[in-house]
Amino acid sequence: MKKNIAVLPGDGIGSEVTAEGVKVLKKIAQIFGHHFDFDYALIGHEAIRTTGNPLPDETMKLLVQSDAILFGAVGHPMYDNDPALKVRPEQGLLRMRKELGLYANIRPVKLFDELLHASSIKPEILKGSDIIFFRELTGDVYFGEKGRKDNNQTAYDTMIYSRHEVERIAHIAFRAAQTRRKKVTSVDKANVLESSRLWRETVQQVAAQYPDVQLEHLFVDAAAMKLIRSPRSFDVVLTGNLFGDILTDEASEIAGSMGMLASASIGDTIGLYEPIHGSAHDITGKGIANPLASVLSAALLLDISFGLKQEADAVIRAVEMTLKDGYRTVDIADSHTPKEKILNTHKMGDEVAVRLEKVAVEV
Ligand code: NAD
To answer: Least enclosed by CB within 10 Å: which of 157, 178, 236, 285?
Structure first.
């Protein structure tokens, strides 16, 4: 198979982890006889620094000509410390999602058994957790009207959803549930928010077309509690942009670390694959970032955009074997991990690539 992959490493640890995602994709191409071309482009702070634009036209031009996108993260402390700055890295990411029509963000949260002790949640509560989040990505407070008024004394963001936006992601979630344990938990705040009442109404209408799938509604506050208390009770979680953003960071603790969670953003055309974490300024440049979220994002890319299920499974299996052999980055190390098995970002990627050779013979 011949494909063009656009690579947007972005800022901070984005470039450190994306290098390992690319390493794994190159290894897959070599083992399975594919030809992947990688074209790099700027986004976020790096793009602002060199072009003044968080999503330069050249980047958009490359994206629309590509078959899939592997993205790292955007962000820089200067913007976090100065909320008044008008041109910001995250604008590049939001615009990219909107312009490419990427409305469904898919975030699998599956605990590798080897990491049972890496989480701060009790192992007996965690064991067997396997959730998939469907977060709506192009609506909500992120894109509703926002501004300042009353002589700068008041600020507002508008939470807005249309029936059509809810329907299209709900269908994707229900179809996914049919291939899993046949349960959808829709998360909203319908007791107070009008947009949530439209969300709930619409999800109920869509659910009627999937009688084999059980639908449960939870308010976001209760969902946040239940995720930690009984993660195994969830199968497919369907939610809006803001609630999904927050709940999936919380759910990363189920998988052991932010560095373990991959995501796919899909719409009507191209797919974008990225770790759920940000640019992590606190560890940038130290070489200790966990690259597995980027590696697992590469697996999602192979599966969803290229239909290469066998290759995607090989990547997941290679990650599993690397963890089984005791290799860890610091964020997923526990008191049982010997010092010599704690690896830097680059070496962790190497260990996965080495195991791909072995796994390829099995799959
Ligand atoms: P973050 O996800 O970058 O980091 C949160 C915590 O998790 C940090 O302690 C970090 O060290 C740790 N962490 C994250 N990824 C890790 C990895 N791969 N390995 C080991 N540890 C990891 O969130 P934040 O600190 O709130 O934000 C930092 C910057 O990232 C901000 O500028 C924010 O705007 C941006 N951000 C970008 C995205 C994105 O590009 N999709 C998402 C979230 C935050």
So the answer is: 285
